[in-house]
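Same chain as my last thread, 272 residues:
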Amino acid sequence: MRMKKMTRILAVCMMAILLVGTTMGVHAQSVTETEPNDTMETAELISPNRQTPQEFLKANNSNTYVVKGSVSDSNEDWFKIYLDDTKDSYFSIYSGLLYFRLYDANGIPVTEEIYETEAASKYHVYDFNYLSTGYYYICLRGSSKVDSYQFLFGNPIYRAASIMREGRKISLSSSSGKQSDVIKFDVEEYPGAQVYNLQVGALSSYASKVEVKYEGSSNTITKTSSAAWGDIDIPLSYNYGLSQNYTFTYTYKNVKTFTPTYDFYYVYPILP
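reply #2:
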């Protein structure tokens, strides 16, 4: 059990490394801006980023679309992209200090604001999910020096992480039958997170099964005693998040008092 847990933790760390800093997965579609693209008329056509949480967890970057380039205060880089209002439209950029503006198909600014990015070792994310379906233009302009950048427009960038919570003391006996444990999460603490695996500690000789119910989902997961006891895979389609309560119900097997631990492994989007 410990070996399997350590293997899963290592896998989570490796997946997180795939998108850290300025490097993306080796199979990501990546394009370097091509001159001339200094005006709206010569804007370079790019694709939206459409990687899903499921693809991220499988290290599948075939739908990850990254644009790279460099720009100074003496020129601009223009890009043209088609966005669908039924899908996410997050602009995620990693760069030095530069300015950008978004225009509609008629060359009219989407907002009055000219966005200024901060030079930092992380992605800055801007929410454009209110846009209607159609073509849009992105204009990037540098500051006083040449600044490199890379950005994605569409689905957000995903990361993987885990969190451990300790439960209450559970006392199982033939008379008690079943005992429940509730783990609570703050609604605002992990926005957009989806749990894909649970590690429930110290169960093999104590309970015959455990039922897992998340308040935000209509699905209940039942795990019976087995060799992989305590390792519970959760389909992302079940929408088990980290914003409401989890109820764990244990069914009596042997007389025992124990305090279970819960490791939640989850994928989450980088949001503004």
